[in-house]
Amino acid sequence: MMDSDRVEILMAKPYWLVDLLPKQVPEGSPGQYFRIERFYLSQLGTLCRRFAGFLIRLNCYSDLQVSRDGESWSTNISPEEMILAFEDSAASHTPLFILAGSSDTLVYFSGDDHNLTLYNPDPDALDLMRQLAASEGLFVWGPQQFQP
What is the largest CA-CA distance in the chain? Predict the structure, then answer.
């Protein structure tokens, strides 16, 4: 099992986002990003089901360990429990940590955001995660797409 020190180490690694949008919205964009963001945050329950669906599919390919505190972990929880974990995280605005595969990839949900953060995925895992995210209408984008 993992502890909070391991989570901190992984959170210092390169990361990608699982997001509603295919890339970062540039500063000063003429659209209405903040209004759209508020809309999706008001629909967080629906979005949490999409995040859970992404991870439920990922669990077909690798073990998943889930924690709400970074200390106590449950391995391969049921799909229903995964959905509840996201819903509870959103309702309480508390984080959710998911370790995938060999525990070198961390999926993080802040509990009150419209994206997931993927820390340290290897290239094969990242490719699979992109495909699985797409099945939920989500996008995976990362460091090469961040703008200063």
Answer: 46
